[in-house]
Amino acid sequence: MSGEILFSASSASRAEKCTGSGLFNAMRVSSPEGAFGSAGHESLYHRAIYGVDEAMRMLPDTCARFGLTEQQTGMLAARLRKFAWSPPPAAVGELSLAICGTLGDVRVVRSKGGKGHYEDLPDDALTAGQLDVMWAEPFPLTRNADGRIVCPVKSTLIVTDYKFGESDHYVDPVERNLQLAINTTAAALWTGAERAVAVVLWVRDEHGEWDAGPVMTSRDFSATLERVVALRDKRIAERDRIASGALPTTHEGAWCAYCPSESSCPSKLMAVRAALANNTGALIPAIAEVLTNDEARRLPIYASTLERWAKKLKDAAQAHVRRNGPITYEDGTQYGKVVVERERIDPVAAMTVLHEELGPHVGEAIDVSKAAIERAFDSLHADLGLTRQTSAAMRRTLAKLHERKAITKVSREEMRMHRPSDATPKEVAGATPAATSTEGAFESRQARGVQAQPKAVTRRNGLPEESPFFSDADDGPL
């Protein structure tokens, strides 16, 4: 089998909005945010199989496998320790399914792979996707005599997609989320479910945020399959157009951030050139004395594109460092990991001093940072009619905080340009020496497992508050 699909479930919505997306000069997209989510998905899968404590014990290794920094590992561990909900101990999770055939003769088969990349698909494969977890209510999933997982006739199949992002800006509402529609339809056809509900579960706070779509029936499954076939035909036509030398058909939007063709997209390249050049083709300098109205109007519009591309460059460099070690330059500087020390103010220990110094303005330093304390002094001195007193007040206050051990040194790993302590600077024409910094040992924290007890959860669209769960322990990743 060597079937080729022109979109996966996870890229279907983007492909539907931008027909040419991913059909030219495609590069595999990766990002720190994506790695964070992938590690979180795998940890929740471990939670279903091994339980909360063991999943938390395995988390550092999981995060390391996805290239997460220590800071990201700590953030993910904190979020998962707080997240109380657990799928059942034997949940059907991380399940990859492929929809194959034609509208009149559709079948669903298990597939290998995931996260948009699938292997050994049947020749007539239309699309494939990976669902995060599924179960049936009120009667649990069962296994028939052939070993196939079956949804009981009177049960509703629940297909859930985990989300770890901080914003839903890039996620379509569940009612029109094509990725979820495809995965839910595939799961329903595969298990024989007559009814199914697609759910987005944002892994936030103690119980998460649940967004359940309407109940899908055979009519909805058919409508989803029609969309899949129509999109497949549209993508085939677009692929042939591009192969003949035509420019791809593109449409810009939030989905561009995850497009594998973004770095060579004609619309994006045009935007970048327009942002950097005026009518004469010269770069617009930041200190330009006069901008035309047209230039001024274009710069804010295209700034977000430049910022996102700059972030992609930085992410690519950091990924290279994590795989291969620091990047060394001729003048002895390096781009890589460095441990820096920062001062941290203990809010509890500092409060007495801040009350003494700031009085009623202490609330303005409530985040207990140096910047906040300085702003509070500015406000206090303005009330008192004092000028040019903030620096002296800050020195006095910081001395008191040090004396009362309210300020401690904390180490943090950063990735940036630096000069290693054992590096010998070299003379390089035109080179500007980088700021020096001392590297030190950085001791990884171990995630601490805490057994979480599932509780009733708040769900937006009315799934049952208490639900029996069942799925098969053997039905994990291929």
Structure description:
It is a single chain. This protein has 478 residues and is α+β, with helices and mostly antiparallel strands. The protein has a domain at 347-405. Helix content is 37%, strand content 18%. It contains 11 helices and 13 strands. It has helices at 9-17, 32-50, 52-65, 70-82, 178-191, 218-243, 266-276, 293-324, 347-358, 370-384, 390-403, and strands at residues 92-102, 105-110, 112-114, 117-119, 125-137, 142-143, 149-150, 156-163, 196-202, 209-212, 327-328, 334-345, 407-418. Strands 2-1-5-8-9-10 form a 6-stranded mixed beta sheet, sandwiched between helices. A 3-stranded antiparallel beta sheet has the order 11-12-13. Helix 2 (32-50) crosses helix 4.
Descriptive terms for the model:
11 helices, alpha+beta, single chain, globular, 6-stranded mixed beta sheet, 3-stranded antiparallel beta sheet, 478 residues, disordered C terminus
Profile the largest sheet: 6 strands, mixed
N-to-C SSE string, H for helix and E for strand: HHHHEEEEEEEEHEEHHHEEHHHE
> How much beta, percentage-wise?
15-25%
Helix share, percent: 25-40%
Task: Give a short summary of the structure.
It contains eleven helices and 13 strands.
Write the layout of secondary structure elements.
Blueprint: H1 9-17, H2 32-50, H3 52-65, H4 70-82, E1 92-102, E2 105-110, E3 112-114, E4 117-119, E5 125-137, E6 142-143, E7 149-150, E8 156-163, H5 178-191, E9 196-202, E10 209-212, H6 218-243, H7 266-276, H8 293-324, E11 327-328, E12 334-345, H9 347-358, H10 370-384, H11 390-403, E13 407-418
